[in-house]
From TrEMBL:
Coiled coil: none annotated. PANTHER family: PURINE-CYTOSINE PERMEASE FCY2-RELATED. Pfam families: Transp_cyt_pur. Belongs to the purine-cytosine permease (2.A.39) family. It is found in: Membrane. GO terms for cellular component: plasma membrane. This is Allantoin permease. It is a multi-pass membrane protein.
Length: 487
C-alpha cells in the first residue's frame, strides 16, 4: 500500500518531525482547488447587490478577501511551528478545557458550511443526470426524488472516502483537481464574458462610504473568516523551520486569488441584470450554468461536482480534528465518519425536508462568524506569546502537565467581543434575530453598519485589543504550569 492510500493516524497530536514534508507552495493547490468554483461569481453578485458602483464593489471584495485570507495564513504559521491543528493550538491561549468553547462553535460553523457544499454537489449531479437521462426528470424538468437520493449517496461516499484516508490522499488529489478546475473555469469564461455588458459598467451610481466598508466586512465573512478555524490543519505537515512568509503568502493567495477573479466577473455580470441577482439568491449555481451549450455543460458540471466534493472532503477532515480537540474519545478516522453522518443528516434535511435554507443559513453563519472571528483575532495576538515561550506543545495539555485548564484573559476577551459583535449585527431569520442586535435601536437596525455586519469587525478589534492589553500591558500572564514530576 502506498503512503497516499494509507489511512492517516495523526489526530490532534503534534505531527512528528520525521513525518513532515513539502514546501509552502504545496498549500496553494489545496486552497485554490476548492475556491475556484463558479460559486465565487455568485459572491460577486451579492457584493454588488449592496448598492455600490462596479469599481467600488470590486475594490471592497478584493480588499475583504485578501485581508481575511491573510489571517488564515498567519494562523497557519503557528501550526507549522508546533505540528498541531489550529483548534488544538488555541488551547495555548484559552486553556485545555476553556478552548472547548471556541472549538465547539468552530465545529458547528464548519459542519454548516459542508452541509451547504454537499447539497449543492448533490443537486448539480442530479441536474446533470436528468440532462443526460430525461427519464429521471419530473414533468417540470426537475430531478425526481429517487434521482436526488442516489446522487446524494454517491456524493457522500466519495467525500467520506477522501476524508477518512486523510492528509496525504487529500494533498495528492488536490494538486490534480486544482489544475483541472482552473482550466475548466478559464474555458467557462469564454461563454461567460460575452454576457457582460461592458458599456454599462460606468453607469452605476457610486455608493456611500459606509456601504463600501460594509461590503469589505461582508466579503471577509463570505470567504476568509470561514477558514480561520482550520487554516493550519494542512500547514502542520510542513517542516518546522519553514519560512513564515511563504506559508502566509501561499495560503492567502490560494484562497484569495481565485475568488477575487470570480468576484470581479460576478460584479460585472450583475450590471443591468437584476433578474440574475434574484435567481442567484435562490439557485446560486443554476443561475450561472444556463448560458452554457450542452456539449460544455456536461464536463463543466462534472468539474463543479469534483470541486464541491473536494471542499467537502477537506472540511469533514478538519471537522474530525475539531471533534477530537473537544475531547471526544475517538480515533481520527472514527471522528471523520461520525462527522460525515451528521453532515449527511443535515444535507438530507436540506434536500428533502426544508423548503428554504439560504436566508437562515446565511444568518446563522454571520452569528457564528462573530465568535470565530473574535477567537481568531485573539489567537493571532497570542502567537506572540507562544513564540516567546518557544512554541512548547505542552501548553496544549491540562494544568500541571505544561498548560492551563482555563485562561481567563482569553476567555474574557472572547466573551466581551462576542457580546459586542452579536449585539450589533442583524439577522433576516426570525429565530436568530432573537439573539442578535440587542445593542441596537430600531433605527440603527436598518443602518448599513448593522445590515452589513460591521459589528463583526468591531468585535475582532475589541477582542484582539483587550487580550493584548491584559497580556502584554497589564502582564496578566496566566502562565502554563508544569509540575515537577512531569518534567
Amino acid at each position: 500500500m502506498s503512503e497516499t492510500t494509507k489511512i492517516e493516524v495523526n489526530g490532534v497530536n503534534p505531527v512528528p518531525d520525521s513525518e513532515r514534508y513539502g514546501k509552502p507552495s504545496d498549500l496553494f493547490p489545496v486552497w485554490f482547488s476548492w475556491n475556484i468554483s463558479i460559486f465565487g461569481i455568485t459572491l460577486g453578485i451579492y457584493v454588488f447587490g449592496l448598492g455600490l458602483s462596479v469599481w467600488q464593489a470590486i475594490a471592497a471584495g478584493v480588499i475583504g478577501y485578501f485581508l481575511s485570507c491573510s489571517f488564515v495564513g498567519i494562523l497557519a504559521v503557528g501550526s507549522v511551528r508546533t505540528g498541531l491543528p489550529t483548534l488544538v493550538q488555541s488551547r495555548f491561549a484559552f486553556g485545555y478545557h476553556g478552548n472547548k468553547i471556541p472549538t465547539f462553535f468552530g465545529y458547528v460553523a464548519n459542519m454548516g458550511w459542508k452541509v451547504s457544499l454537499l447539497s449543492m454537489a448533490t443537486t448539480t449531479l442530479a441536474d446533470l443526470v436528468t440532462k443526460l437521462a430525461p427519464a429521471f426528470a419530473k414533468a417540470d424538468g426537475y430531478p425526481t426524488d429517487a434521482c436526488i437520493l442516489v446522487s446524494f449517496l454517491v456524493i457522500l461516499v466519495l467525500t467520506v472516502f477522501g476524508a477518512v484516508y486523510g492528509h496525504q490522499l487529500i494533498i495528492k488529489l488536490e494538486k490534480g483537481i486544482a489544475w483541472v478546475t482552473g482550466l475548466m473555469t478559464l474555458a467557462y469564461l469564454f461563454f461567460f464574458i460575452p454576457q457582460i455588458n461592458f458599456s454599462a459598467l460606468n453607469t452605476v451610481e457610486t455608493g456611500n462610504w459606509g456601504t463600501f466598508v460594509g461590503a469589505i466586512v461582508l466579503s471577509m465573512t463570505m470567504v476568509g473568516l470561514g477558514f480561520l478555524n482550520y487554516g493550519g490543519d494542512y500547514s502542520r505537515y510542513l517542516p518546522r523551520k519553514t519560512q513564515a512568509g511563504g506559508v502566509i503568502l501561499w495560503t492567502t493567495c490560494g484562497i484569495a486569488v481565485p475568488v477575487s477573479v470570480l468576484l470581479i466577473l460576478g460584479v460585472m455580470l450583475s450590471v443591468g441584470n437584476p433578474e440574475l441577482l434574484e435567481r442567484a439568491n435562490r439557485e446560486p449555481l443554476a443561475a450561472l450554468t444556463g448560458i452554457l451549450p450542452f456539449w460544455f455543460y456536461v464536463p463543466f458540471s462534472i468539474v463543479i461536482i469534483v470541486s464541491l466534493v473536494s471542499a467537502g472532503m477537506t472540511g469533514i477532515y478538519s471537522s474530525g480534528l475539531a471533534l477530537m480537540a473537544m475531547g471526544a474519545p475517538l480515533k481520527r478516522w472514527q471522528s471523520t465518519v461520525l462527522n460525515a453522518l451528521i453532515i449527511a443528516f443535515g444535507t438530507f434535511y436540506l434536500l428533502f425536508v426544508s423548503d428554504s435554507f439560504v436566508a437562515p443559513f446565511q444568518s446563522f453563519l454571520a452569528a457564528i462568524s462573530v465568535i470565530m472571528g473574535s477567537w481568531g483575532a485573539i489567537e493571532m495576538v497570542d502567537l506572540l506569546r507562544q513564540k516567546r515561550l518557544g512554541w512548547d506543545v505542552r501548553m496544549a495539555l491540562p494544568y500541571g502537565e505544561g498548560g492551563r485548564n482555563y485562561r481567563w484573559t482569553a476567555l474574557l476577551s472572547l466573551a466581551v467581543a462576542s457580546l459586542i459583535g452579536l449585539g450589533t449585527i442583524t439577522s433576516s431569520d426570525p429565530y436568530i434575530a432573537k439573539v442578535v442586535s440587542f445593542l441596537l435601536t430600531e433605527e440603527m437596525e436598518k443602518s448599513v453598519f448593522a445590515t452589513s455586519n460591521m459589528g463583526l469587525a468591531v468585535a475582532m478589534i475589541v477582542g484582539a485589543a483587550l487580550y493584548y492589553v491584559l497580556t502584554f500591558v497589564l502582564k496578566c500572564e496566566v502562565a502554563p504550569v508544569l509540575h515537577e514530576e512531569k518534567r
